[in-house]
Amino acid sequence: MSVETLGDSDHRQVWHRFYADFAFRPSTNRFQWPGISEPPGSVTWSLTALDDDPEYLLLDRLVSVVRRGLTACADELYALDWHHDAYRFPTAAEDWPLSPFPDGDYYIYLTPDFRLGTFGHPWEYTLCVFGDELVTAISAELTAVLGEPLRRSA
């Protein structure tokens, strides 16, 4: 299986479930952030450490850590880009759609059962990692790249 763009029906169904399960509130208003009800056990990092990274070394490390963690914890993922195409793909795929870094839009990786993934918030400039297995797999490395977490969900 390769990267597959979700058809209209699947696209609507996945986004509808994401809105419902995570109480997604897209907004540029900081009083409405973090944008989702962060799942219990999730950890959220600020992405400001990437601001002083002219060679993109930290960004490359961030992407590598998240990809390695997701590959270790899941066989298949959804990649969601708010108001754009959504994808389903095996973690073994060589080229992944999107990035965990929210480059101007909400970028989300999710397992098909929604048990783990990442939520990149472009305006809060954060990355939330959720699902016990994924959090355990990548927290230490993400902290080394991004600094101490901004928050942890109880």
From TrEMBL:
<protein>
    <recommendedName>
        <fullName>DUF2716 domain-containing protein</fullName>
    </recommendedName>
</protein>
<dbReference type="InterPro" id="IPR020323">
    <property type="entry name" value="DUF2716"/>
</dbReference>
<dbReference type="Pfam" id="PF10898">
    <property type="entry name" value="DUF2716"/>
</dbReference>
